[in-house]
Amino acid sequence: MNSFEKQILTSQKFIPAIQQALLDTYFANYDQELLHSDSGKIDIENNVFRRYNHSLHHVVPWLSRHIELAGKNVLEIGCGTGSSTAALAHYVQKIVGYDIHSLAVQGASKRMEIMGLNNVLLHTIDENSLIERITKDADSKYDIILLFAVLEHQTVIERHDTLETCWNLLADHGIMAVIDTPNILHYFDLHTSKLPFLHMLPTRLYARYAANSTRSSLVKSFSGEEQRSDSQLDMEIARWGRGVSYHDFEIALGKDYKNFLVAEGFEPEILEWFGCTIEEEILRWYVEHKAFNIPLGFTRCVLNLIFKKHSPVTTTPEATKYTAPPLTLFNPALQKRIEVLEQKIREQDTMLEKIYHSSTWRAGSMLARPYRKIQQLFKK
Length: 380
Fold this sequence. Notes:
By secondary structure, the chain is of the alpha/beta class. Helix content is 50%, strand content 12%.
C-alpha cells in the first residue's frame, strides 16, 4: 500500500464531519428534494469524499511524476469544496486556493479545519477580479498551479486570461496541471447535458435544444430563453460548461504550447481513472490520418494535461509516443468499416491527383480563366 492509499484510509474517519459541514455550507441553498434524489446523493458523495479519493489515488501521484511535492507552493484556481486542495495539502508546503462560490469556500475551510490542515489559505473572489487578485496576492512564483475542472466554466476570454496569467505566475521548472476538463471536440456532452453534439451548437440553438436534456436543473436554466439575449445565454452556457480544446492553449500560451507538455493523460494513474473510449480512438485516428500537428492528449474525451515551464524542446514529449490499442479490441465491425473508408479516401485522393494533372483539366482551367477575372471584377 502506497502513502496515497494510506492517506485515503486515514481520512475516512473525517467523512461524517465533512458531510455535515458541507450540508451546512455548500449544500445549504440546494433544493432539498433534489438533494435527496439519487443524483443529489451522488453529488454529496462526490464533494464529501469521492473527489478527494480520486485526487489522492490518481492526481497526486501523477503530479509527483513530474515534480517533487515536498516544500512546494501551490496555487489552485477553482478550489470548490476543497477535495483536491486537501489531498495535495498533505504533501506540499502551502496551497493558496480561490473560488467564486462563497459557500463552497466556507465548506472547504471547514474541511481543512476538520482534517487539521493548516497550510491552506482560501479566498472567495469575483470572477471579474480573478486575474487582478491572484496577481496582486502572489508574493513569489508558484511551483505548482492546479486548474481542476475549472476552465470549461469560464468564458473564452476569461479562460485565455487565466491560462496566460497562471503561466506567468509559474516558477521556472514549475508545472501547471489542467485536470478533469471536458474536450469540446468530442461528440457527446458527458459533462453538462448528457446529449450528443449539444456543446458544439451555436448559443441560441443550444439554449432551445437543452430542453431535451435529462438534467432537470439544466432544462430549468434555459426555460424562457426567448426572453434573454444571446450574450446572456452565452454566459449561462459558459457557467454550466461547454468544454476546452487545444485552440485555447495555442492562443493563450503561444504556438510553442505543445513543447511544454510533459503529460497528456495516457499515464497509468489517469488511464486507470479515465480509460480510453472508442470515441477517443476515432478522433485520434482522424488526427493522425490528417497528420494534424496536435498533441494526442487533445484527442481524449477528458483533458488531463501537465505543462512544465522550461526551455522549449523540439523532441516529442514521452506521452505523445503513446500507441493506442487497435480498434479491433473495441469493435471489429467498426475497424472493418474504417478500413473500407480509408481505402475510399486513398482512391479519391489518387483520382483527384490524376484529374489535376490531366490535359483536360489544364485546358478547362485555361478556358475558365477569363470568366474568373470577370467574377473578381464584379465582386470588387
